[in-house]
Every structure is written in structure tokens, then in C-alpha cells.
Write a structure and sequence with these properties.
alpha/beta; Purple Acid Phosphatase, chain A, domain 2; 6-stranded mixed β-sheet; 5-stranded mixed β-sheet; 6 helices; globular; binds fe (ii) ion
């Protein structure tokens, strides 16, 4: 069990295009990632690690991953990434060759240990499809990896949410075999958080009794349409990411998720004057 807090920043759904190309003809995802990297680099204290939870590229192509590498180069923090439905396993493996993938071929699962806290990155992508699924190889690996150190807290990261958000067109392409994930999570109380992406908006629930989140994006958000009133759409809302801080304590400690807006904001300003009195 780790003895000091561990802070994991999660960014998601970068949708990087070839240089000079806008996503959906409208969103400058490259500039959005630049602003995101600036905010990450300015966090004080700095997070221990960054997880990118899928859709790093958009169509995807070699050129997009090359642009992604260029845009992530200024990031001062260590990071790892898991694919989303807009990614290619092969192109992503080639673009991020130093990652410690669990398998030489197929799903890009990873286990990362930060001061005794386990981050398990699960590849929920299904080549050529928008929905998510954890294949048999990944489910077996997850169960065995969780069983290998039952005393250590673990955070799971995957692209596709395993729950319904109420946004119909996204729910139809979420993690289709979520029931199989329930069975595994229920066997391993060390799982303290399930953190996902895909919907580009901050969402919180519980899944198999575990706090479960969707991370907002640095660019555009899926339209908050809970009654299918409109065609599938997006809005350019305030960009943000998540900061998951694990605090030590009994029963695997406690995870707190902060929603962090991206950009420059007025402050910080002191609450108290030089005389120690509240201003
Ligand atoms: Fe996605």
C-alpha cells in the first residue's frame, strides 16, 4: 500500500488531425491540445503521471500520430495512453514504441505502478467499430493482474464507458460487454476507480459499486441531449480534464477526482490580508 498521495491527470479524446486540418471542419484540436499541455505543465504540485484515455488521433493516419507526438513533446510529465475507437492499434504502437504493452500483438493493455498504486490501462477498442468491447485476452489479463497484488489499490482506465449516460447515440456505442467487467471488478475490491472517455463530457456514477467517471475533452463536447431531440451533435464548451488524487488510508485509501478547466484564469488571490484577517 503506498504511503503518500498519488496524483494522476487524465486527458481524453484529443482527436488530433493532420497539421492545418480542423475536426469536423470546425474544431482546432491541435491548438486545444497545446492549451491542455500548457495547463498540465503549470500544475503545482505537478501530477505524478498522465493517462490519455483514447481517441488520440481522428481518422487515424501516420500523419495524425506524427502531429500528436509533436504536440505532446512539450509535456513535462510522464504519460501513457490507451486506444479509443478513432485510433489504430498498429499505428499507435508504432507512434508510442516505448510503452510497456502487456502483449506484443493485439490489445494495447498496460500496467503502470506509481509508488504502489496500480494503473491498469484496458484497450476497449474494436478495430473498425465505434463501440467498445474488452476481448477475452484483455479480460483474462485484467483478472490475473488484479489477482497478482490484491493488497494494492488499482485504478482502471479505458476509453468506452461501461454505463448508460442518457445520450442515446453514444450509449449505443459504449462498452457492450460491461457485464463481464462487472464480474471481474466485483471479485477484486482493490479497484478504486474506473475512468473512461469517449463522450467528451464530465460524467460521474458508480459501476459495480466503484466510482466511475467520464473525462471531459480539451476540444469539443458531445451535445447534452438526453431525449434525442437533435441529430448527433457537438458543442464547443469550456475545455477541461480530470485530476484523480489517491490518498492513503484504510480499505485501499480514497480517490478524489477534481475537474480542472483548461486555460488562463484570474488568480490565485489570497483570502487573507497581511494582518491575517479575511479580506
Ligand atoms: Fe471515442
Amino acid at each position: 500500500m503506498p504511503s503518500k498521495p498519488v496524483c494522476i491527470a487524465q486527458i481524453s479524446d484529443l482527436h488530433i488531425k493532420a497539421p492545418g486540418t480542423l475536426a469536423y471542419g470546425r474544431v482546432d484540436t491541435a491548438s486545444a491540445l497545446e492549451r491542455c499541455v500548457t495547463t498540465l505543465n503549470e500544475l503545482d504540485p505537478a501530477p505524478d503521471f498522465v493517462v490519455i484515455s483514447g481517441d488520440l488521433a481522428d481518422t487515424p493516419t501516420d500523419e495524425e500520430y506524427e502531429n500528436l507526438r509533436h504536440l505532446l513533446a512539450p509535456l513535462k510529465l510522464p504519460f501513457a495512453a490507451v486506444p479509443g475507437n478513432h485510433d489504430s492499434r498498429e499505428l499507435m504502437r508504432a507512434a508510442l514504441p516505448l510503452a510497456d504493452y502487456a502483449f506484443q500483438y493485439g490489445p494495447l493493455n498496460q500496467r503502470i505502478e506509481i509508488d504502489g498504486l496500480a494503473l491498469l490501462l484496458l484497450d476497449s477498442s474494436v478495430p473498425g467499430k465505434p463501440h467498445g468491447e474488452l476481448d477475452a485476452q484483455t479480460l483474462t489479463w485484467l483478472d490475473a493482474t488484479l489477482a497478482s497484488a490484491p493488497e494494492r489499490p488499482a485504478l482502471l482506465f479505458l476509453h468506452h464507458p461501461p454505463f448508460m449516460t442518457g445520450i442515446g447515440h453514444m450509449d449505443r456505442q459504449n462498452l457492450l460487454n460491461a457485464g463481464e467487467l462487472v464480474s471481474i471488478v466485483e471479485r477484486h475490491p482493490r479497484v478504486q476507480l474506473i475512468a473512461t472517455g469517449h463522450v467528451h463530457r464530465a460524467t460521474f456514477t458508480t459501476f459495480a459499486g466503484v466510482p466511475t467517471t467520464i473525462c471531459p475533452a480539451p476540444n469539443h463536447a458531445v451535445d447534452l441531449d438526453l431525449a434525442e431531440l437533435r441529430e448527433p451533435s457537438f458543442r464547443v464548451e469550456p475545455p477541461a480534464f480530470h485530476l484523480h488524487t489517491w490518498f492513503p488510508g484504510a480499505d485501499f485509501g480514497n480517490v478524489v477526482t477534481h475537474h480542472v478547466p483548461i486555460g488562463k484564469f484570474d488568480g490565485p488571490h489570497p483570502f487573507f490580508g497581511p494582518d491575517g484577517k479575511l479580506l
